[in-house]
Design brief:
By secondary structure, this protein is an alpha+beta fold. Helix content is 43%, strand content 17%.
Length: 81
């Protein structure tokens, strides 16, 4: 991860921590893409939907995405019960 990507991720996480409880109460399991320079966030039922909405508003800016109510936005691998 580049220094710019790391900065975007860190700044987005700071914003996310401020709005997390509010969004999780009403948008559990949805995705949120945060554009940290503006502080705007974009919700979607899929990761592509959230990022696509952010790209419509800010086509040339990096965003960082989270999944509400989950530790990570995406998970790859086998889930063992």
């Amino acid at each position: 991860m580049s220094a710019v990507q790391s900065s975007v991720a860190n700044d987005a996480r700071s914003i996310f921590e401020q709005i997390r409880e509010l969004l999780e109460a009403t948008h559990a399991d949805e995705f949120v893409a945060i554009e940290p320079a503006s502080g705007r966030y974009f919700l979607g039922s899929t990761l592509s939907e959230a990022i696509g909405a952010s790209r419509m508003a800010f086509p040339d800016r990096l965003v960082h995405a989270f999944r509400l109510g989950h530790k990570t936005a995406v998970h790859f691998g086998l889930q063992i019960r």
